[in-house]
Structure of ABC transporter ATP-binding protein:
Amino acid sequence: MYHIVMQHIHGRARWAFFLAPLIMLGEVFCDLQQPTLMSEIIDQGLSKGDLNFVISHAGLMLLFAVLGLIFGGACGALGSYASLKMGEALRSHLLTVALNDRQAGSLPPATLITRITNDVTQMQNLVMMVTRGLVRSPMLLIGGVVMSIIVCPDLAPILFVVMPILVVFLLVIVRLSVPKYTAMQQSVDHINQIMRENLQGAKTIKSYVLEDHQHADFTTSNQHLQQTSQTAAMATVLLSPVIQLMLNLGVVVALGYGGQLAISNTISNGQIIAFVNYMIQITSAMIQTVNIITAFSRAITSATRVQAVLDMAAFQVAPAQVAAVADVKPHGSQIEFDQVSFGYQQSRPILDHVSFTVPDGQWLGVIGATGAGKSTLINLLTRRFDDYHGTIKIGGVDIQQMALSTVHAAVAVALQDSLLFSGTVRSNLTYGRPDATDAELTNATAIADAQPFIAQLPAKYDAPVEQAGKNFSGGQRQRLNLARAIVPTTDILVLDDATSAVDQTTNAAIKSRLREQRADKTTLIISQRVTNVIDCDQILVLNNGRLEAIGTHAELMQQSPFYRQLVTTQLGGAPDANA
Ligand SMILES: Nc1ncnc2c1ncn2[C@@H]1O[C@H](COP(=O)(O)OP(=O)(O)OP(=O)(O)O)[C@@H](O)[C@H]1O
């Protein structure tokens, strides 16, 4: 856990993290002065009627109180700064790892969300506690013992009896409660997961009439949480009463035995009061230590889960790191793949020595069965993953020499399942080009056949879009998603099954409008349907990650048995590309 925290505290936050405990020493020092000053006021001020002494020492008490407050405040501010910055850096790191995820069977989104939110918060709480309590508790404890021995050595044996009993008791409580709190935390996670799945899969649950099943599952998990919470609470229920009892016993003995000693003038009243106050400080430091240990146990569970997400990065190469090296601009929009091989996992190649060229301004159709590697080609072209073999060039420049922003300015992609984000229709359409005018939006939405329903929205482009675009139908979302890719008028446009939810006639109309708009612009149409790619300048046929053939429809019909088979299966014959 220390490793994760240190890895994500940089610069000023790191200074704050180490400075805060040092400042806390100041607060502890101030706190430890109070009982001694009080005892002096009693012994040398009040009992001798020396008002000046009382006032000057009361002033000193006030000064130490204010100083303590300042030290405490500064420590708290530095601690929360370090904790916030650590949380920010860790969340952003986890998000990057999650976005680049490529491991089969890796963590589902609901789990990732819990880890990025809840688990990081637990670790942040610990950083806060550590910066304050890790120094304060032991120092107050040791300081309290030392001071009480110095101020009142005659009563010190009481401490040597009470403290070991308390330490043993607290160790037992920690041992009992830590696993119970861990179990409680796991129950909370399970309920979170069920809630997320229920909310995300509401439609599926309703359509399969699974409400009762899900409800029963939820109730069982709730009962489990109730049980684990109760056991965790029971484990610590004795904490406060036993500590109070031991403290009060100590105070009674201190007052009784101290009173005897005071009568025989061995110790003073002030010393007894100081001793009792140090006992209170020592006990509160012990309670704080238990709280820190419990927080540690929770944070360790969270850190283990956060580490599991970070471990996923072992399979990733972050494109941004390579992008920082250089930023060469492309000369045109010709696309070249030269002997490109890639696998999401090393053991399983997805693309195998794929080479092809799409000359500037050409339309390329990419066809192949599901899982053939079509979208993977685009993942590599847009530099989502960089650890491929071979070379990919745009406009004659190796994409590895371009900044990510340059690649994304050159290539726009409309995916089949792109999300809309909460905001407005306009905010969704202008991601690729924030300064797009209404005329440009109208042009793009007209091509994508989104105009008919946008025109009916009272607020038109300013109409609200709810989370994940759930106030629009699947077809409407896909049209908006397509328009969003058209708005920036990039040199290269990729439609990756981007019209799958659109009927055949509308699909043909969209394509013909796109043809007019992008007659001389490089465009890639990825599809499983032959009709979608049949009229492209070239069609690339992918089969299990290998380039089966490339050519026009007519050429492929002659040269590629695999393509002929596809056409026969889908269309039942050999249609004319111009039909
Ligand atoms: N992010 C990822 N992590 C791990 N494996 C992946 C990832 N994306 C795709 N794959 C795997 O790579 C293979 C090729 O996927 P790809 O999406 O390129 O196929 P596709 O030809 O576009 O399929 P479809 O037509 O169904 O969209 C599949 O077996 C898929 O399971």
